Amino acid sequence: MTAGAACSKKRYRWKRPRQSHRKRQDPIQKAIKQAVLETLELAAQAGWVGLKYLDEAGFCLWSPVSYSDSPIGEQKRLEQTPQRYGNRISILGLWQPGQGFEYALAQGGFRGKSYIEVMDWSLRRRHKPWRRAGASR
């Protein structure tokens, strides 16, 4: 009997768990940051600032648990395991609604100097005069 069939008989489902960060969040800090975001969004709507949303995602070649059983209708969460070092790839995305999306890739992660380099690159790219392909100088 397969694991999926055994789980089905016990009213469990065989599926991938997701990583949970709920215990790491501070509700007070989250509320403060949400208020700051709402203020910035209002300033962007008024045209006072150009607001870009930034997110970093990392990928690596190992997976701690690929499948697990959980009661039907519930999702099992696993706390993130201690970081393992290896061939990790990170992508840093910058999205400005109505304007476009920019990204940078790095092996490892974005720290200090590399993060500042991406911010400078994005700023230089924004202020670079746009020329159409084939247009003369």
Structure write-up:
- With about 140 residues, this protein is α+β, with helices and mostly antiparallel strands.
- It has one domain (about 15-125).
- It is built from 3 helices and 7 strands, in the order H-E-E-H-E-E-E-E-E-H.
- It has helices spanning about 5-10, 25-45, 110-125, and strands at about 10-15, 20, 55-60, 70, 75-80, 90-95, 100-105.
- The protein has a 3-stranded antiparallel beta sheet, with no helix packed on it.
- A hairpin with a 3-residue loop joins strand 6 (about 90-95) and strand 7.
- The protein is elongated, with a radius of gyration of 22 Å.
- The model has no long low-confidence stretch (mean pLDDT about 80).
List keywords for this structure.
single chain, 137 residues, alpha+beta, three-stranded antiparallel sheet, 7 strands, 27% strand
